């Protein structure tokens, strides 16, 4: 677990991060979201001590980061920034091998790890290992940047606007890839963005910051249903709120007894998917199947719309 404990940063008289605390569970993805200048990047950089906190501390599995030598800390915490920071004169394989080399892994182990990561990021080693960063597209550079940060299996991966330079279509694909890789590796990630859609798409938990302070730290569903204040509510975005809520709720939670005609929908799919299917087919209800394919009930438009309403 990563414990962020009362972190504060002052530049002169200005408080840039004020008394921020939250815990990040192992194997989860936490998104820090907020307006420009809220202090998100500074908070992230205090976690790996690129910025020295004015007060407060960070614990990694109970160990205070101040007791860990800085170079060791950089090896234990991966860091990805917008623009990826790839070394322009090193090829893809050498870029990915950076930290394992510093840690003096043997050649064979490094070569295996590089190949494994290239495969994982869907970059064919035969084609990409020897290319240089300028020969790659933005999306490919982004993947190499993340692969490099993950190479030595860090305890924590920090990502600052990692998709900021990608256009909308590639960005969405890159977000899906990150989720798949995070699940597969069980990596613990803290990611900074100013994009609330990205936060909802990626975050197991979301930390909302404004003017140096943490306003709320909660799951996406909690943010939607119980925003801590007006600012959070506005940021979450009232217009898309019902749809976001439906995207986060599985069909199983609106299951009703009874029969319905048509192709069944899986209980694990979202109510958003169910509603799209219902609107598309013009039906009032769909049969619902469990993971074995057995029909366990139905889901109806009326019931879904009840779920889209915020709690009183
Ligand atoms: N080294 C510094 N010296 C003085 N002020 C700084 C320094 N670094 C950051 N700041 C100020 O701290 C505030 C927060 O900056 P930070 O980059 O953490 O915000 P952010 O939420 O990441 O914003 P953005 O999304 O625009 O990058 C800003 O007002 C910035 O000008």
- Helicity level: 25-40%
Which structural class do you get from the secondary structure elements?
A: alpha/beta
What small molecules are bound in this structure? adenosine-5'-triphosphate
CATH topology of the largest domain: Rossmann fold
Give the integer mean of the pLDDT values: 89
Kindly provide the name of the CATH class of the largest domain.
Alpha Beta
What does this structure look like?
The chain is of the alpha/beta class. The chain has two domains: 2-237, Rossmann fold (3-Layer(aba) Sandwich); 243-308, Alpha-Beta Complex (CBS domain Like), CATH 3.90.1280.20. It is 39% helix and 24% strand. The strands form three sheets. The chain has a six-stranded mixed β-sheet, with helices on both faces. Strands 2-1-4-5 form a four-stranded antiparallel β-sheet, covered by helices on one side. It is globular. 35% of the residues are buried. The model has no long low-confidence stretch (mean pLDDT 89). Adenosine-5'-triphosphate binds at residues 11, 16, 34, 36-42, 194. It comes from Microvirga makkahensis.
Ordered list of secondary-structure elements with their pairings:
Layout: E1 2-11, E2 14-24, E3 29-34, H1 40-47, E4 55-60, E5 63-64, H2 70-76, E6 77-81, H3 92-96, H4 98-102, H5 107-120, H6 125-128, H7 138-150, E7 156-160, H8 168-185, E8 189-193, H9 196-202, E9 205-210, E10 213-218, H10 220-225, H11 230-236, H12 241-248, E11 265-266, H13 271-281, E12 285-289, E13 295-300, H14 301-308
This protein binds adenosine-5'-triphosphate.
């Amino acid at each position: 677990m990563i414990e962020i404990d009362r972190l504060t940063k002052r530049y002169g008289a200005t408080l840039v991060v004020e008394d921020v605390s939250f815990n990040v569970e192992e194997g989860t993805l936490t998104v820090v979201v907020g307006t420009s200048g809220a202090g998100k990047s500074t908070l992230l950089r205090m976690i790996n001590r690129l910025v020295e906190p004015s007060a407060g501390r960070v614990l990694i599995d109970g160990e205070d980061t101040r007791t860990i030598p800085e170079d060791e800390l950089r090896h234990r915490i991966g860091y990805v920034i917008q623009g990826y920071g790839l070394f322009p004169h090193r090829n893809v394989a050498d870029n990915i091998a950076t930290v394992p080399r510093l840690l003096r892994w043997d050649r064979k182990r490094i070569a295996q790890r590089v190949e494994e990561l290239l495969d994982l990021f869907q970059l064919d080693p035969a084609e990409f290992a020897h290319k240089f960063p300028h020969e790659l597209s933005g999306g490919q550079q982004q993947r190499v940047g993340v692969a490099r940060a993950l190479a030595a299996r860090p305890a924590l991966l920090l990502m600052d606007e990692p998709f900021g330079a990608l256009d909308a279509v590639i960005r969405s694909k890159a977000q899906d890839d990150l989720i798949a890789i995070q699940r597969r590796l069980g990596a613990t990630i803290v990611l900074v963005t100013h994009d609330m859609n990205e936060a909802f798409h990626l975050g197991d938990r979301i930390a909302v910051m404004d003017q140096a302070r943490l306003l709320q730290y909660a799951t996406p569903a909690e943010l939607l249903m119980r925003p801590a204040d007006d600012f959070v509510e506005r940021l979450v975005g009232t217009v898309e709120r019902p749809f976001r809520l439906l995207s986060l709720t599985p069909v199983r939670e609106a299951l009703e007894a009874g029969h319905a005609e048509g192709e069944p929908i899986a209980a694990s799919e979202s109510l958003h998917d169910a509603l799209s299917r219902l609107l598309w087919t013009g039906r009032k209800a769909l049969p619902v199947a469990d993971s074995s394919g057995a029909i366990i009930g139905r889901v109806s438009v009326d019931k879904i719309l009840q779920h889209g309403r915020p709690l009183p």
